[in-house]
Amino acid sequence: MDITHKPQRVAPPPAGAAPAADTPAPVAPPAAAASARLHHSWLDDAHALIAGALFVALGLTMFGHAGLLTGGVAGVAFLLNYGTGTSLPLGFFLLNLPFFWLAWHRLGPAFTVKSLTAVTLVSVFTALAPRVVRFELLNPWVAAVLGGLLIGFGLLALLRHQASVGGVNILAQWLQHSRGWRAGHVQMGVDLVVVLAALAIVPPERLLQSVIGAVAIGAFLALNHRPGRYLGV
């Protein structure tokens, strides 16, 4: 009598049966996860560039009407406008041009072209805004908060479509990509420095209101523009 133990064959589980509890779930490869990200079409980008530029231009118009200023290149353009009468849209456009060298070499041609388009649109819309929008009564405190939020919203739309309005935004975007610094924090810090440098031109009350506007812009970006939160490219 043969008493040798023979291993029993285990039948495979029927089709459709649930896997065992200790069976690890399949993990999608990184390439598959990356392919799941949303990609913007050219129409998406065009809409974001136009809408973002409109929001920024409207916010800058509110700042200018209330005698406020913001930081970055736009702040320098405001100072030139208040001190010498230089056209705000023209100064904004010309002061931004040197920053596109950094954008071209560090952030790529696509980002540079989109950003140059955005800067051009903001300059044009800011020049046209006084002809189509008039503020008969605009409280400077309201202008600081509402104008700052409009600018922040416009910048967010541009940044999420790989564009900016040049200047400090280009520097902030590069630092976020290369070093993980939040663009909103960089923007807020530089804006506050520029606003404080305006002590010789802007009255103290307007300066305080401008600081509030700069904080509104930077805080909006810091809360809403974080790496990995928005997957559209």
How much is the average pLDDT? 81
If you compute it from the alpha carbons, what radius of gyration comes out, rounded to the nearest whole angstrom? 26 Å
What fraction of residues sit in β-strands? under 5%
Structural class determined from secondary elements: mainly alpha
Number of helical regions: 10
Number of strands: 0
Distance between the termini: 73 Å
Q: Name the helix and strand elements from N-terminus to C-terminus, one letter apiece.
A: HHHHHHHHHH
Q: Tell me about the biggest sheet?
A: none
Question: Helicity, in percent?
Answer: 55-70%
Question: Could you characterize the architecture of this molecule?
Answer:
The chain has 233 residues and is an all-alpha fold. 66% of the residues lie in helices and 0% in strands. It has one domain. The longest helix is centred in the first third of the chain and has 25 residues, at 42-66. This is YitT family protein. It holds the Pfam family YitT_membrane.
List the helices and strands and how they pair.
Layout: H1 30-35, H2 42-66, H3 72-84, H4 88-96, H5 99-107, H6 109-132, H7 140-159, H8 168-179, H9 183-196, H10 204-224
